[in-house]
Amino acid sequence: MEVIIAETPTDVGRIAAQIIASIVSAKPAAVLGFATGSSPSGIYSDLADIRQSGDLDLSNARGFALDEYVGIPTSHPASYAAVVQRDIAAPLGMRQGNITVPDGRRADHDKGCRDFEEAMSLAGGIDIQILGIGTNGHIGFNEPTSSLASRTRIKTLTVQTRTDNARFFAGADEVPTHCITQGLGTILEAKRLLLVAQGGQKARAIAAAGEGPVSSMWPASVLQLHPCATVIVDEDAARHLELADYYRHAFQNKPTQAVST
Ligand code: GLP
User: Fold this and answer.
1) What is the C-alpha radius of gyration for the chain, rounded to an integer number of angstroms?
2) DSSP letters for 217-247
3) Residues near 210 by Cβ (< 8 Å), separated by ≥ 6?
4) Does the CB atom of residue 176 touch ligand 1 within 6 A?
5) Does 67 contact ligand 1 (Cβ within 6 A)?
6) Does 68 contact ligand 1 (Cβ within 6 A)?
7) Is residue 44 lining ligand 1, measured as CB closer than 6 Å?
C-alpha cells in the first residue's frame, strides 16, 4: 500500500485527481468507480477544472457507484443516484447512460445486486476505484464485520454511520436503515484502489486500515490485500500513522516507474 501524506485537504484532492486524469488520458474509455460523501468531492471539482481547461475528456468514460440507500427515491437529493448525477457526472461531462448506480428500489435485491455486478464485469471491471472511509473504517457501506470476501448486497447501516450521514438529510431519523453496497471482495477486484481521507475524525480509521491487522472490524484494512492501493490523507488524518516519516520519504523518492505498492 502506498500512503501519501498531503499538506492540506486541498492537496489530497489535487493529487488524487492527477492520478485519475492520467488514467483517463491513457484510456479514454476507462471505467471509474465513484465514492460519494464529502471526502472525494475535491477530486471531482479538480477533475472538473482539468476538464474545463481542455486537458481531460470523460465523455467516453464509464462510471459505477459504490453504494446506494434503500427505500428513498432516486429523486431524493441525498440518494446516491442523484448525488452521482449532480455532483460527479454532470460537472465531469459524462454521459448519463454511462453511469450505473446500485438500485435501492428493487423488489428483489439479490437479483438487483447480481445484475449490478454483471454490468461491472461486462464493462471490463473497474480501472480505478475511488474510496472514502467512514469514521468506523467502512468503505462503500461495508460496516465493521463485513465479510472480507463479500459481494454487492443489502446491508444494515450502523447507528454511527446514520448519525454521520444525518447532515445530508432532514435529521438522523430520516437516514435510511439499509443500503446496497459493493462488497469488499467486489472492491478488491478493481485494478487500482484510491482512498482519500481528510481531518482528525478519520485518523483512527486510517491508522487501523493502513497499519493494523487485516480485520473485518476495520473494513478498509482489506486494502492491504490489494496489489495497487494508494491512500492519500492530509496531516490531520495522518496523525496516528506510526510510519508517517517513512511514507513522506518514500513519496519524495518514488521511482518514476513504480506502479505496484
Ligand atoms: C458514506 C459513503 C462512503 C463514504 C463515507 C464517508 O457512508 N457510503 O462511501 O466513504 O460515507 O463519508 P465522508 O467522506 O462524507 O466522510
Assistant:
1) 17
2) TBGGGGGGG-TTEEEEEETTTTTT-TTHHHH
3) 1, 3, 221, 223, 224, 231, 241
4) no
5) yes
6) no
7) no
Sheet containing 229-234: order of strands? 2-6, 229-234, 193-197, 128-131, 31-34, 62-65, 99-100
Residue labelled with grid coordinates 432532514: 170
> Does the domain spanning 2-260 belong to CATH 3.40.50.620?
no
Atom of ligand 1 nearest to the CA of 140: 9
User: In the chain, pLDDT over 90 holds for what percent of residues?
Assistant: 95
Number of helical H runs and strand E runs in the chain = 9, 10
Instruction: Compute the distance from residue 156 Cα to the ligand 1 centre, in Å.
Output: 15
Task: For 27-69, write each residue's pLDDT tens digit.
Answer: 999 999 999 999 999 999 999 999 999 999 999 999 999 999 9
pLDDT digits (tens, 9 = 90+) for 151-205: 999 999 999 999 999 999 999 999 999 999 999 999 999 999 999 999 999 999 9
Which residues, including other chains, have CB under 8 Å from residue 253's CB and lie 6 or more apart?
none
Q: And the C-alpha cell for 200?
A: 482528525
Distance 134 CA to ligand 1 centre (A): 5
